[in-house]
Write a structure and sequence with these properties.
Radius of gyration: 21 Å
Distance between the termini: 40 Å
Number of strands: 5
Number of domains: 1
C-alpha cells in the first residue's frame, strides 16, 4: 500500500483544465445574491433579538452583539463583492499556499500567547484587532484545494486523499471541535465522490467514518453525555439534556405563527447559546412553524441556486468549486437544523448567515462571492 504523500502537496501543472469549454460571461446569479443578502440581514435582526438579555448582562449595552454582527456583515459583504469580481480560476494557483497556511494556523491555536484557550478548547487565534477561528478557514481551503486537485483525472489518489483529510480533520479534533470536523469530512467526501471516484470507496469509507465519529463521541465525557441525551432526552433534565429540552420547548411554544418578534421567553437566559448555535429555536418560538418553514425554504432556495451554478460551470474546477461551496452551506444547515429538532446530537455548528460569529459570517459571504463569480461563466 502506497500513500503517494508527494501528490498531496505537488505543484499543479497548469491553469488550463480538462473539459474546459471557455465559457460565456454573463451576469452574476442575482437570485442567489438576493437570497444570501436577505438571510444575512434577517440574521442581524435575530442576533439582536436573541441577545438582548445577555448583552445587557455582560456589557450593559443591549445592541452589543447586533453591532458586532452588523460590522461583520459589512466586512463579509466587502469580501462578497471582491470575490464576485475576481475570476474564479485565479483561486486555482492559490490552493496550495492557502492549504499550507491553514495547516500552520490550525497548529498555531495550541501555541501559548497566540492561541486563545476558552473552556478547555483551543479554537481561536488572537490577531490583536480580532479573533480568528482557523477551523472556519479550513472549510474554505479544503474545498478549494480538493477542487483544484480533483479537476485533473488521476489514478490511485484515494490514500493520498485520506492522508490529507486525516491531517486537517485530526488537527480540528484536537482543539477539540467534533462538529466542525464532521462538517469538513462530509464536504470533502462530497467533492471526492462527485469527481467520478469509484463508488466502492464510498462503501468502504462511510461505515468507517460513522464508527470513528461515534467512537470520538464516546471517549470524551461531554460528548458521551450529548450522545446519551440524543437517545434519551429525559436523561439529566437539568444537566446534559437541558439545552435540547429548552430548544424543543421554544419550538413548541411558537405554534403555527409564533409568539411575535421580540417576545421570546427563552432568550432571557433560559436557552443556552441563544444567539449562536440555538438561534433557530428563538426563530421558531417568535415566528412559529410558518416563519421557521420560510427560513428553511430560503436555505433550500440558496442551495438549489448553488447546485444550478455547479452544473452550469464551464470546466471541472469551477463545477467542483461551486459544488463544494454549496455543500458547505447545505451540510452546515442540515447539521444545525437537525440538532435543533433532535434528529441529530447537538454539535455546536452555527446556522449559516444567521448565527452570531465573525469568522463564519465573513468567510461564508466571501465564499458566496466566489460562487457568484462562477455563476457568470456558463458552458
Amino acid at each position: 500500500m502506497k500513500f503517494h504523500f508527494y501528490k498531496i502537496f505537488s505543484r499543479f501543472k497548469t491553469i488550463k483544465l480538462f473539459h474546459d469549454s471557455g465559457g460565456k460571461t454573463g451576469r452574476v446569479d442575482r437570485w442567489m445574491l438576493l437570497g444570501v443578502f436577505v438571510l444575512s440581514l434577517f440574521g442581524v435582526l435575530m442576533v439582536y433579538d436573541s441577545s438582548v438579555a445577555i448583552a445587557i448582562r455582560d456589557f450593559a449595552y443591549q445592541y452589543y452583539y447586533a453591532r458586532q454582527q452588523l460590522l461583520w456583515l459589512g466586512l463579509g459583504l466587502v469580501g462578497l463583492s471582491i470575490g464576485s469580481k475576481i475570476p474564479y480560476k485565479a483561486w486555482y494557483n492559490a490552493a496550495l499556499p492557502l492549504l499550507l497556511g491553514t495547516l500552520v494556523l490550525l497548529m498555531a491555536v495550541f501555541i501559548p500567547g497566540i492561541g486563545v484557550r476558552t473552556m478547555g478548547a483551543h479554537r481561536w487565534i488572537n490577531l490583536g484587532f480580532t479573533i480568528l477561528q482557523p477551523a472556519e478557514l479550513a472549510k474554505f481551503t479544503i474545498i478549494l484545494y480538493l477542487s483544484a486537485w480533483f479537476s485533473h483525472p488521476e489514478k490511485n489518489r484515494f490514500w493520498s486523499f485520506l492522508l490529507l483529510l486525516g491531517m486537517v480533520v485530526g488537527l480540528i479534533l484536537l482543539e477539540p471541535d467534533l462538529g466542525t470536523g464532521v462538517v469538513i469530512l462530509l464536504i470533502a467526501l462530497s467533492i471526492y465522490f462527485f469527481s467520478n471516484s469509484p463508488i466502492k470507496h464510498l462503501v468502504f469509507l462511510l461505515p468507517i467514518a460513522a464508527f470513528g465519529i461515534i467512537l470520538l463521541a464516546l471517549i470524551a465525557p461531554y460528548r458521551a453525555q450529548r450522545l446519551m441525551t440524543f437517545f434519551n432526552p429525559q436523561h439529566d433534565p437539568l444537566g446534559s439534556s437541558y439545552q435540547i429540552r429548552q430548544v424543543l420547548l421554544a419550538l413548541g411554544s411558537g405554534g403555527w405563527t409564533g409568539v411575535g418578534i421580540g417576545k421570546s421567553r427563552e432568550k432571557y437566559e433560559y436557552l443556552p447559546e441563544a444567539n449562536t448555535d440555538s438561534i433557530f429555536a428563538i426563530i421558531g418560538e417568535e415566528v412559529g412553524f410558518v416563519g421557521a418553514l420560510t427560513v428553511i425554504l430560503a436555505y433550500v432556495f440558496i442551495i438549489w441556486r448553488g447546485f444550478r451554478i455547479a452544473t452550469r460551470a464551464p470546466d471541472t474546477f469551477g463545477g467542483l468549486f461551486a459544488l463544494g461551496l454549496t455543500m458547505w452551506v447545505a451540510i452546515q444547515t442540515i447539521v444545525n437544523l437537525g440538532s435543533m429538532v433532535a434528529m441529530l446530537p447537538l454539535t455546536g455548528v452555527p446556522l449559516p448567515f444567521v448565527s452570531y460569529g465573525g469568522s463564519s459570517l465573513i468567510l461564508l459571504l466571501s465564499a458566496m462571492g466566489i460562487l457568484l463569480n462562477i455563476s457568470k461563466y456558463k458552458k
